[in-house]
């Protein structure tokens, strides 16, 4: 699904008003009804709701929601922030409707002294600023945000917590932003919702549809997307009756070293659970019995070294190669990785120590075959590209790296993000904090490898693998607390995850 910038959303909004057609006051009412409906279903009407309304349409939404909630017998109080200019258009009309209704206590905030005390058991609806925020908070809005952040009331933000920009917050002061417990965002999540440092500002966020016009949504281009099952399900082919294991590719996994054989084991199992026809695990001699016993479905290619990866044979027979989990970074392993890059496998996924070796030898980066998939966690990514500060800047570095070396980068995290050499970005929406556990990344590498070997387009392999990996992790928590989740649980649930994606 597409993620639009706040500027694009305003344009889509205008198009909807003209083409549907719908009056802008009625579109605001539609948004307000959605928000009010959510609040009515999630809150007790014994809790007082205090609305803070700003000068723009975000404030207009808040005024309309207060009126609707009052009709449903909620105790509402509204504070309009007075910026010394009269309200315009839809916000002015909603202020008028609220006064006419006469069910809501109305107040104005003109200075710090008139900021009301907020009881701990109240609910605050933040309608100060939304997607029209033009500068970071200062003066009175900053004082209001500080007062709300100091209170223990539950805060629900309309569209976006006031003070947070929809995209680039690299120059923002995040301490000045209103900290919401819930963010009810209209029609589309904003780009900044996918960045970890904003988690505490957004709380839990939900997207409420307001019926913006489908044709303009499909015509408006954006590089930013989030992954949904609907958009990837057709990438997973239905198996043909007369197919055989040769139809589904032969993967070579180069993984494990003495003391880190588990990484090879987890990646092998995950690869096999992802539909590959044949898997050869290239492992040090000492890992042979372990792998043959624990993963009897895999064939083994045994390194001359007892301890680590130092050599490989002809790559001709393999449809995809994966390297990295548990390899270590010893000099002989580094040399062998260089030879692997020089052999230029057509489909390649690199993870963990393979990436650490690349960070030690950035001069090898140009050897990466086009459309190779790299799956770093944030620390590995930082070793590769250097520190990049906030997430927005980090995203720019990730895109630049993908474009420079023509590779797909899968940066693992709460919203794992995939950048492609053509400039597109995909954020994942599955997964949970229980997956921050040893071996979870090895499982992802195995899935990517399994899909690549079956001849998935590399970008599709990355997208399906990331989504399925997260979904399997989510399914694992149905029976098991996040705290107890281990990487093997993700593998156990892969079958059900693929099943659900296909549906
Ligand atoms: N399509 C939709 O999603 C719909 C969204 N709706 C709601 O509309 C807002 C966006 O409304 P908009 O009026 O464009 O913007 P805001 O309400 O966020 O605020 C703009 C006004 O605030 C002033 N402003 C901006 N930043 C500051 C600041 N830091 N300090 C003080 N004042 C500020 C701005 O003044 P300027 O000087 O910048 O002109 C404006 O006066 C969206 O978020 C939704 O809630 C619709 O209701 C339905 C469709
Ligand atoms: K807001």
TrEMBL record:
Annotated residues for binding of (6S)-NADPHX: 57-61, 130-136, 159, 263, 326, 377, 442
UniProt: K(+) binding residues: 58, 126, 162
Tagged with keyword Transmembrane helix: no
Entry's cofactor comment: Binds 1 potassium ion per subunit.
Domain YjeF C-terminal: 228-501
Domain of life of the organism encoding this protein: Bacteria
Keywords for this protein: ATP-binding, Isomerase, Kinase, Lyase, Metal-binding, Multifunctional enzyme, NAD, NADP, Nucleotide-binding, Potassium, Transferase
Binding positions for AMP per the UniProt entry: 412-416, 441
Subunit structure and binding partners: Homotetramer.
UniProt xrefs under PANTHER family: ATP-DEPENDENT (S)-NAD(P)H-HYDRATE DEHYDRATASE, ATP-DEPENDENT (S)-NAD(P)H-HYDRATE DEHYDRATASE FAMILY MEMBER
Entry's family note: Belongs to the NnrE/AIBP family.
Protein's recorded name: Bifunctional NAD(P)H-hydrate repair enzyme
Lineage, broadest ranks: Bacteria, Pseudomonadati, Bacteroidota, Bacteroidia, Marinilabiliales
């Amino acid at each position: 699904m597409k993620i639009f910038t706040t500027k694009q959303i305003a344009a889509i909004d205008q198009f909807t008003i003209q083409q549907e057609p719908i009056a802008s006051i009625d579109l605001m009412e539609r948004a307000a009804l959605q928000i009010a409906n959510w609040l009515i279903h999630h809150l007790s009407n014994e809790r007082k709701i205090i609305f803070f309304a700003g000068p723009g349409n975000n404030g207009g939404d808040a005024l309309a929601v207060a009126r609707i909630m009052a009709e449903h017998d909620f105790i509402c109080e509204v504070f309009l922030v007075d910026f010394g200019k009269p309200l315009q258009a839809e916000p002015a009309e909603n202020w008028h409707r609220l006064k006419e209704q006469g069910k809501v206590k109305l107040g104005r905030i003109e200075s710090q002294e008139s900021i009301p005390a907020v009881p701990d058991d109240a609910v605050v609806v933040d309608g100060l600023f939304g997607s029209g925020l033009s500068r970071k908070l200062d003066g009175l809005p900053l004082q209001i945000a500080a007062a709300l952040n100091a209170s223990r009331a539950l805060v629900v933000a309309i569209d976006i917590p006031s003070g947070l920009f929809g995209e680039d917050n690299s120059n923002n002061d995040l301490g000045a932003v209103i900290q919401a417990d819930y963010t009810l965002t209209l029609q589309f999540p904003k780009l900044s919702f996918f960045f970890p440092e904003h988690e505490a500002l957004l709380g839990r966020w939900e997207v409420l549809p307001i019926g913006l016009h489908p044709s303009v949504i499909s015509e408006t281009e954006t590089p930013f997307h989030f992954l949904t099952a609907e958009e990837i399900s057709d990438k997973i082919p239905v198996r043909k009756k007369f197919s055989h294991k040769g139809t589904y590719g032969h993967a070579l996994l180069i993984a494990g070293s003495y003391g880190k054989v588990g990484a090879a084991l987890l990646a092998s199992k995950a690869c096999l659970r992802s539909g590959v026809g044949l898997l050869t695990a290239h492992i040090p001699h000492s890992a042979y019995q372990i792998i043959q016993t624990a993963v009897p479905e895999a064939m083994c290619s045994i390194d001359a070294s007892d301890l680590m990866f130092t050599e490989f044979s002809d790559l001709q027979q393999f449809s995809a190669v994966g390297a990295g989990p548990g390899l270590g970074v010893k000099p002989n392993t580094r040399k062998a990785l260089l030879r692997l890059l020089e052999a230029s496998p057509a489909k390649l996924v690199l993870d963990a120590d393979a990436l650490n070796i690349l960070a030690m030898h950035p001069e090898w980066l140009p050897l990466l075959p086009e459309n190779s998939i790299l799956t770093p966690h944030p620390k590995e990514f930082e070793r590769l590209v250097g520190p990049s500060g906030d997430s927005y800047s980090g995203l720019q570095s990730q895109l630049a790296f993908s474009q420079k070396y023509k590779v797909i980068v899968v940066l693992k995290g709460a919203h794992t993000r995939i950048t492609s050499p053509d400039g597109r970005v995909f954020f994942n929406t599955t997964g949970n904090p229980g997956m921050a556990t040893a071996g979870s990344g090895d499982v992802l590498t195995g899935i990517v490898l399994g899909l690549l070997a079956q001849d998935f387009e590399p970008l599709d392999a990355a997208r399906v693998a990331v989504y399925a990996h997260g979904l399997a992790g989510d399914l694992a928590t149905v029976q098991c607390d996040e705290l107890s989740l281990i990487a093997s649980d993700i593998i156990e649930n892969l079958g059900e995850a693929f099943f659900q994606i296909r549906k």
